[in-house]
């Protein structure tokens, strides 16, 4: 993990010379990056640098206008978000993505039943509540009445308990109290230990660098740096790392 050499496993996710546009506006220019098996990549950079666009391209939400995306060795360029999700790539964003009128427990049961099977749901629920005890306390509460941080915990719990090949987390700690950020990162550290790879987009750059094995810095839609967290700290100025 952090402080060591760059991770060497085969890439789980690989972007090769990816470009992406929103109408006439080009958001990504020839972006290449790899997330290695069992490792965590921190994707950092200034506001508007293109970090979320990388996440959307990887998860099939935004099409590429050039280049390729590979997942587990398969070329997934142009595949639908649904098809990519079924391959084991989960995307958790800061946006509120829970079913507001359902309870916390109903949201989790819905997420767990299909991939894990009905008989595995009780055990999956207890793992979710172990990871986020606050959700256990509120299991009967409508998800729509949870605080913003609690809703993000719920979205994360859904993705963490179902085994994934890669979890893309986009600004998950944005606006959260420090103690909640710690809970989120503790959960991400545990999921990394189970072998799931992580692509972490973060405003809390130092926090992300503590977790990550490698780091990519984006600036104006291009890769400015691709290397280890230690290298990023020594080679890049405070401006680029946003400190
Ligand atoms: P932040 O840290 O502020 O969330 P980011 O690095 O995630 O920024 P992106 O959200 O990927 O950046 O945006 C990259 C660029 O693409 C920005 O200039 C943004 O204005 C533009 N952009 C993003 N989404 C759209 C969209 N739906 N339509 C038009 N332009 C967009």
Give unreliable regions as ranges.
none
Helix/strand order, N-terminal first? EEEHEEHEHHHHEHEHEEHH
CATH superfamily of the domain at 11-96 and 165-241: P-loop containing nucleotide triphosphate hydrolases
Class of the domain at 11-96 and 165-241, according to the CATH hierarchy? Alpha Beta
What does this structure look like?
By secondary structure, the chain is of the alpha/beta class. It has a domain at 11-96 and 165-241: P-loop containing nucleotide triphosphate hydrolases (Rossmann fold), CATH 3.40.50. It is built from 10 helices and 10 strands. It has a 6-stranded mixed beta sheet, with helices on both faces. A 4-stranded antiparallel beta sheet has the order 2-1-4-5, covered by helices on one side. α3 packs across α4 (121-131) and α4 (121-131) packs across α6. It is globular. The chain starts with 10 loop residues before the first strand and ends with a helix. Bound molecules: adenosine-5'-triphosphate. Adenosine-5'-triphosphate binds next to β2 and α1.
Give the topology.
Blueprint: E1 11-22, E2 25-36, E3 40-45, H1 51-58, E4 66-71, E5 74-75, H2 81-86, E6 89-93, H3 104-116, H4 121-131, H5 133-137, H6 148-161, E7 166-170, H7 178-193, E8 197-201, H8 205-211, E9 214-219, E10 222-227, H9 229-235, H10 238-241
Parallel strand pairs: 3-8, 3-9, 6-7, 7-8
Antiparallel strand pairs: 1-2, 1-4, 4-5, 9-10
Helix pairs in contact: 3-4, 3-6, 4-6, 6-7
Bound molecules: adenosine-5'-triphosphate.
């Amino acid at each position: 993990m952090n402080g060591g050499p760059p991770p060497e496993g085969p890439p789980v996710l690989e972007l090769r010379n990816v470009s992406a546009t929103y109408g006439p506006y080009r958001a990504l220019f020839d972006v290449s990056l790899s997330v290695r098996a069992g490792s965590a990549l921190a994707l950092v950079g200034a506001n508007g640098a293109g970090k979320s666009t990388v996440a959307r391209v990887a998860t099939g939400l935004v099409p590429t206008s050039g280049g390729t995306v590979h997942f587990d060795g398969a070329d997934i360029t142009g595949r639908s978000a649904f098809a990519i999700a079924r391959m084991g790539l989960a995307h958790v964003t800061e946006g509120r993505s829970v079913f507001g009128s359902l309870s916390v427990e109903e949201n989790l049961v819905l997420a767990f039943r299909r991939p894990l099977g009905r008989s595995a749901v009780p055990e999956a629920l207890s793992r979710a509540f172990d990871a986020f005890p606050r959700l256990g306390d509120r299991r009967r509460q409508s998800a729509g009445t949870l605080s913003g941080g609690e809703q993000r915990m719920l979205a994360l719990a859904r993705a963490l308990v179902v085994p994934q090949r890669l979890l893309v987390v986009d600004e998950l700690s944005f606006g959260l109290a420090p103690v909640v950020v710690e809970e989120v990162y503790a959960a991400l550290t545990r999921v990394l230990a189970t072998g799931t790879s992580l692509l972490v987009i973060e405003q809390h750059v130092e926090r992300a660098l503590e977790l990550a094995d490698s780091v990519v810095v984006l600036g104006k839609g291009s890769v400015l740096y691709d290397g280890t967290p230690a290298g990023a700290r020594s080679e890049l100025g405070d401006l680029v790392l946003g400190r």
